[in-house]
Write a structure and sequence with these properties.
Distance between the termini: 21 Å
InterPro entries: Oxidative_Scav/Glycosyltrans, Zf-RING_7
Keywords: Coiled coil
Number of strands: 3
Pfam family, one: Zn_ribbon_9
Largest sheet: 3 strands, mixed
Number of domains: 2
Domain C4-type zinc ribbon: 208-239
Order of helices and strands: HHHHEEHEH
CATH class of the largest domain: Mainly Alpha
Radius of gyration: 39 Å
Shape: rod-shaped
CATH architecture of the largest domain: Orthogonal Bundle
Coiled coil: 40-178
Length: 259
């Protein structure tokens, strides 16, 4: 191929259309993968989130168990104090001392009642959290199985297409280097603005590929002459004639077959 400064319009058109065919092939490969990489990523995030939730719930249960132990210790301390105060009541000198100790006993009995109530509430919380842990583990198991399936599906597709995609991306870079920067910028801009990524299209049945807008015969003649780069006034796509397109498609198919 001629250098950038020597390239004719026809050579530029051929190079641009070749680049389009390479990039379209990459698009096809990525479409085969579809949403799988994102699905795998989302599933991985979900699995991680579920594991984090289980860990937090287990920590909550440990904390509540610690609180139960503390309340049980408090009950034992209160019982010890009640026994102590009861023993002291036997040796009081007057009713005032007796009543004072009776109040202490009553207070410790209330402490025991409150601690027992707390323990009951804590145990209910543990049961509720254990239920949530069981449900979350079930959900985690189901999502991990789904993730494993999706990962193997993605790995199989990657194994089939990764090598070809890398080779095509290298070819795309190689072809871009052979085309002047101004045209590459225009090509990329058009490619980003159109839904199917087609920036260079052949004329099909009197209209630009994928369009229903007819191209005037005079413009079709100009395109076929390959003397200047012509864009579709409706879509902005660069247009090439069907003969050139067919020739380049045959050439590129042979190249794809070797990748």
């Amino acid at each position: 191929m001629a250098t950038k400064t020597e390239a004719t319009v026809e050579e530029k058109l051929r190079a641009l259309y070749d680049l389009q065919l390479i990039d379209s092939r990459v698009d096809e490969i990525r479409n085969v993968r579809g949403e799988l990489p994102l699905e795998v990523e989302d599933l991985e995030d979900e699995v991680l989130g579920l594991k984090t939730r289980i860990d937090k719930l287990k920590t909550d249960v440990e904390t509540i168990n610690y609180e139960i132990t503390a309340k049980k210790n408090l009950i034992e301390e209160s019982k010890t104090l009640i026994k102590k105060y009861a023993d002291q009541q036997k040796n009081v000198r007057n009713s005032r001392e007796f009543n004072s100790l009776a109040k202490e006993v009553e207070f410790q009995e209330l402490e025991i009642q409150l601690a027992e109530k707390n323990i009951k509430e804590f145990k209910a919380q543990i049961e509720q959290k254990k239920e949530v842990i069981a449900e979350t583990k079930e959900r985690l198991s189901e999502r991990e199985t789904h993730l494993k399936h999706k990962k193997s599906e993605l790995d199989a597709i990657l194994a089939e297409t990764e090598k070809e995609e890398k080779a095509l991306l290298a070819k795309s870079e190689e072809y871009q280097e052979q085309i002047e920067e101004r045209l590459i910028k225009a090509y990329k801009r058009i490619r980003n603005n159109v839904k199917n990524g087609l920036a260079v299209v052949p004329i099909e049945r009197g209209a630009s590929g994928g369009s229903f807008f007819t191209i005037p015969p005079q413009v079709q003649v100009e395109i076929a002459s390959r003397k200047k780069i012509i864009t579709d006034e409706h879509s902005g796509r660069i247009l090439v004639d069907p003969v050139l397109a067919e020739e380049e498609q045959e050439k590129m198919q042979k190249m794809f077959g070797k990748i």
